[in-house]
Amino acid sequence: MEIVIVQSQEQAGKLVADTVAALLKRKTDPVLGVATGSSPGAVYKELARRVEAGELSLRHAKAFMLDEYVGLSEEHPQRYRVVIDREFVEPTDIDPANVSGPEGTARDLVEACADYERQIHAAGGVDLQILGIGTDGHIAFNEPGSSLASRTRLKTLTRQTRQDNARFFGGDIEAVPKHCLTQGVGTLMEADHLVLLAFGQPKAEAVHHMVEGPVSAMWPATALQFHPHVTVLLDESAASRLQLASYARQAWESKPKWQGL
């Protein structure tokens, strides 16, 4: 993994936006993987700023969401499609019809997951996947114990994840759905470039396991150690448990900046 320790979330957002811009120069119709949660917020804000300034355009891009809650109404403010529309689609010029997500209101959830896998495959796969990480090491909604070869499927959320996400539901854990549809670890690993963002002390333990620990289903993010192109952007707090933090700083500072992430 390439570890980049940043001074702020805004700096991370600019670096990822630079990477999207470079991708757009190589490919006019890229496929992006978009995540919800607080970690990618600065990325979406910077992309929106550049679209508004005419510096880049996403009108020919496609995007696939990581996951979706099961059972929330289509209008619910915390339904992930609503969140992505609000934070990513509406502020940029991407065509809403080109943004897809797992269908958490489907009658047949198993078939909805299989169909989502087919959609990603038909689009040629994801070029750049944005990720966050949970305090328990989950990526997307692949909770501890998930198969590292898993595909898009129905999952039960752990109480820890529901507690972490309760802040989006007015602090009420009982309002957080108990089930979700999520891309599997195996699905995520097929993206060309994985970019994971983590900020704050609560993420430090998970980041330590992900980067320096043994690969284990109990910390699903450790599977990323097997991917050939992973970039991890951290602030000082999230990097505080890394034994090789100083080496990561030296490697990034000495890297030719034209290479990007």
TrEMBL record:
Which residues constitute the catalytic centre? D67 (proton acceptor), D136 (for ring-opening step), H138 (proton acceptor), E143 (for ring-opening step)
**UniProt-listed SUPFAM superfamilies:** NagB/RpiA/CoA transferase-like (SSF100950)
Q: What GO biological process terms does the UniProt entry carry, in alphabetical order? A: carbohydrate metabolic process; glucosamine catabolic process; N-acetylglucosamine catabolic process; N-acetylneuraminate catabolic process
Q: Domain Glucosamine/galactosamine-6-phosphate isomerase, which positions? A: 10-225
The EC number(s) this enzyme carries? 3.5.99.6
User: What does the record give as its pathway?
Assistant: Amino-sugar metabolism; N-acetylneuraminate degradation; D-fructose 6-phosphate from N-acetylneuraminate: step 5/5
**Sites marked Part of the allosteric site:** S146, R153, K155, T156
Listed GO molecular functions? glucosamine-6-phosphate deaminase activity; identical protein binding
Reaction catalysis annotation:
alpha-D-glucosamine 6-phosphate + H2O = beta-D-fructose 6-phosphate + NH4(+)
The annotated modulation of its activity is: Allosterically activated by N-acetylglucosamine 6-phosphate (GlcNAc6P).
EC main class here is hydrolase
One Gene Ontology cellular component term attached to this UniProt record is:
cytoplasm
Respond yes or no to whether keyword Hydrolase is given for this record: yes
Q: Which family does it belong to?
A: Belongs to the glucosamine/galactosamine-6-phosphate isomerase family. NagB subfamily.
Q: Which HAMAP family match?
A: GlcN6P_deamin
Q: Per its database record, what is this protein's job?
A: Catalyzes the reversible isomerization-deamination of glucosamine 6-phosphate (GlcN6P) to form fructose 6-phosphate (Fru6P) and ammonium ion.
Q: What is this protein called?
A: Glucosamine-6-phosphate deaminase
- Species annotation: Kocuria coralli
Tell me the name of the encoding gene.
nagB
